[in-house]
Amino acid sequence: MSTKTHYEDLKQQIHEHNYRYHVLDAPIVSDLEFDRLLNELKQIEAEHPDWITADSPTLRAGAKPADRFIKVTHPAPILSLGNAFGADDARGWFERVCRIDDRVERARFVVEPKIDGLSVVLHYHDGIFVQGATRGNGEIGEDITANLRTVKSIPLRIPVDEKGPKPPKVLVIRGEAYMPIKEFEKLNRKRAEEGKPTYLNPRNTAAGSLRMLDPAETASRVLKLLVYQIVHCEGGKIPTSQWELLEYLKALGFPITDIARRFDDFEDAVAYTESWDKNRDELEYEADGMVIKIDDLNLAKDLGFVGKDPRGAIAFKFPAREVTTKLLDIKINVGRTGMLIPNAVLEPVEIGGVIVMRATLHNFDYIVQKDIRIGDRVLVKRAGEVIPYVIGPVLGARTGKEKKYKLPTNCPSCGQPVERLDDEVAFYCVNAACPAQLVRNVEHFVSRGAMDIVGMGTRIVEKLIETGKVKDIADIYYLKRADILEAVTKKERKTEKEPPGKIAENLLASIEASKSRPLARLVAALGIRGAGEVSAADLASHFADLDVLSKASAETLQQIAGIGPSVAESVAEWFSRPVNKNVIKKLKAAGVWPQGGSSANAKSRASNALEGKTFVITGTLPTWSRDDAKEFIESHGGKVTDSVSKKTSYLVLGEAPGSKYEKAKSLGVKIIGEEALKKLVG
Ligand code: IVH
Predict the structure, then answer these.
(1) Quick one: CA dihedral 190, 193, 196, 202, positive or negative?
(2) Are residues 265 and 131 in the same domain?
(3) What CA–CA distance (Å, rounded) separates 452 from 278?
(4) Cα–Cα distance measured from residue 203 to residue 471, given in angstroms and rounded to the nearest whole number
């Protein structure tokens, strides 16, 4: 029987594994084992909903969407920081505070990164995370608890390690939530692939993600957190030095920065701060400076404030990686999906050691909203590894000679009129024969994650399209040696070590080999808007081949787990186009016809021993999760359903079963355990 103690123990285990993975970056169980524990917890909660409390790890998945955020008053003002620009400015601050209180001369200093994220305020009552809020105006913020619960590095219960210190009855912590730069770029790549507008920078994206009304949306974004302050505390003692405070927060299980240092001498603190200006790209988040804090928190408090800035700390800002330069032109790139992407052509300029000549303008709405004109002096930002982007025009520098940008009416590549979809900010070239799109489509089709055709670089692709040998992706499979030889440009002849004949042979061999790629890869390779690798795999597992998939309506496609309405529409629409129907026909005729779906499942079946038998699973099985048991039954031809009826062949019984057990007994259904289930297949 599942006891409450077992449930609590399981919860504690999950908290610790989560902490090891998301805070310490040192997991000791595999993802699969972790999922098993979480699944077991979910099962217990399904049977004992009254046991669920605010610290349950299952709540991280995202609660129901809200209509709006409720305003909350912070227990103490959420202060800001004064800025110092450069070492001399920082020394000026030091001298000023020394004059106010001579204890500062002998003080120690803690230097921390200044994370360019979003300030959040986390409330813990009796060690349980009960509320999380935005900073708002410093006095009143918004309750974003459900969203913050989805941030895995936020402990839902402290101390995470039972051996950690016992926290005060009420503890209110402040930290900075952020989106790691790599995650931001990944998200933008995905959005671009789905034809959605890309986001501006990690900070805005993190802020936007935390303010989404649907917590499940927030859960889909990778957000992290670093904490650095205790805002309020009741019923307990907390350290009075910033350094010890960080150690204390760490011992409770909070994520803290690992680059904080304590210094006895102010000049050493300045030198350390300056060293991070050069190294800031090493950090996984955007840092716009370092914060120098007086270590003695009582002394810092005694120093008081200037407006909203405490005197006891100063933000040492890094030189901004923002410069102004002239916008020479706006060029349009045509993406694979036909989406037109505006790019800024800039007068070359150095930003943080890198010469920048191009920058993104995001989308056409952005150009209009910011009233960016050709010839404008524009402010350009480069942060971390993020592609430089235009922040906006410097209005004061206008001469009157700048030209207003005219939105495109025709595709710059094929000249066909462009279209704007109702719910998107992007413009599209919908001409399936557009050469620029075709180049991108072929590039995508042959790419590694798709059909993986080696040796088909952009130049060859462009040439094959120019010479009319490739008019659609299927033409790749009809290429002859002579076509490829013709497409091998002078440049390739010079740079490639291989003679042209060998290049052609290798390419033909690679094309041939690609015919055996699985259906999921082929579906992803087609470049249907919204159908990336994951959706393609979902589709491929449900359909036997492209013919069957192409006949499915948007309604049918939507029934598939993981396929949303917009992807379903987009897939159905793609297959309905005569040009694409022709492509499929040509692929089939060329022998590019992988099998997927039910036939693939049938092939992977271990046996038919359970064919015709229906199973219901209840309770916690000794070693298997419910999903494991389900997979096992299905792989032997059996069926698993949710509720017990007279038709149920077996009830698979685990610890702490629910009402299904009673029902099975009353109906006389055969009851077996995990071991007996295994034996059924011999
Ligand atoms: S201390 C009294 N420490 O920077 C405490 N702030 O420009 C004042 N920030 O509003 C804040 N990293 O949101 C502090 N290590 C850090 C920080 C940090 C980022 C943010 C914070 C603050 C803003 C001031």
Answers:
(1) positive
(2) yes
(3) 39
(4) 43
Last residue of a domain, which of 288, 317, 346? 317
Determine the Cα–Cα distance for residues 289 and 243; give it in Å rounded to an integer. Answer: 19
What are 35-58's pLDDT values in tens digits? 899 999 999 999 999 999 889 999
Beta-carbon contacts of residue 675 (< 8 Å; ≥ 6 apart): none
Give residue-wise pLDDT tens across range 148-207: 999 999 999 999 998 999 999 999 999 999 999 989 988 987 887 666 777 878 998 999
- Report which residue type is found at 339: M
Distance CA 158, CA 109 (A): 28
The torsion region of residue 195 among left (phi > 0), alpha (psi -120 to 50) and beta comes to left
Does any domain span residue 429? no
Q: Provide the number of structural domains found in the chain.
A: 6
Q: What is the mean pLDDT of residues 366-375?
A: 93
> Are residues 534 and 491 part of one domain?
no
Q: Looking at ligand 1, which residue's alpha carbon is closest to its atom 12? A: 114
The answer to whether residue 114 is catalytic is yes
- Residue nearest ligand 1's atom 4 by CA: 114
Query: Are residues 199 and 188 in contact, defined by beta-carbon separation less than 8 angstroms?
Result: yes
As a whole number of angstroms, the distance between CA 534 and CA 545 comes to 17
For the chain, the distance separating the N- and C-terminal CA atoms, rounded to the nearest angstrom, is 28
In the chain, the percentage of residues whose pLDDT exceeds 90 is 58
Closest atom, ligand 1, to C-alpha of 315? 7
Query: CA 190 to CA 188: how far, in whole Å?
Result: 5
C-alpha angle 29-42-627 in degrees, rounded to nearest 5? 70
Q: Are residues 204 and 155 in the same domain?
A: yes
As a whole number of angstroms, the distance between CA 614 and CA 599 comes to 21
Residue length of the chain: 682
Per-residue pLDDT tens digits for 408-417 = 999 999 999 9
**234: CA distance to ligand 1 center in Å?**
23
Question: What are the distances in angstroms from CA 530 to CA 194, 294, 336, 337, 539?
Answer: 4, 51, 12, 9, 12
Tracing tokens 């920082």 back to the chain, one arrives at 90
Q: Which of 114, 224, 381, 469 is catalytic?
A: 114
Identify whether the C-beta of residue 125 lies closer than 8 Å to the C-beta of residue 169.
Answer: yes
* Ligand 1 centroid, distance to 182 Cα (angstroms): 23
Last residue of a domain, one of 268, 295, 317: 317
What are the tokens at 273? 């701060």
* Residue 138 lies in domain: 83-317
**Ligand 1 pocket list (CB less than 6 A):** 79-81, 112, 114-115, 119, 176, 228-229, 291, 310, 313, 315
Could you tell me if 112 and 193 lie in one domain? yes
Is this prediction's pTM over 0.85? Answer: no
pLDDT confidence of 602, banded at 50, 70, 90? very low
List the one residue out of 330, 460, 503, 475 whose CA is nearest residue 405: 330
Ligand 1 center from residue 33 Cα (angstroms): 38
Q: What average pLDDT score do residues 211-220 get? A: 89
Number of H helices and E strands in the chain, helices first, is 26, 24
Q: Report the pLDDT value the prediction gives residue 494, as an integer from 0 to 100.
A: 66
- Distances 185 to 36, 221, 327, 352, 448 between C-alpha atoms, Å: 31, 12, 24, 20, 19
Angle between helices 181-193 and 202-210 (to 10 degrees): 80
CATH code, 48: 1.10.287.610
| 449 plus 483 within the same structural domain | yes
Relative to the CA of 83, which ligand 1 atom is closest?
7
- Where in 164-303 does DSSP place strands (E)? 170-178, 224-234, 261-263, 287-294
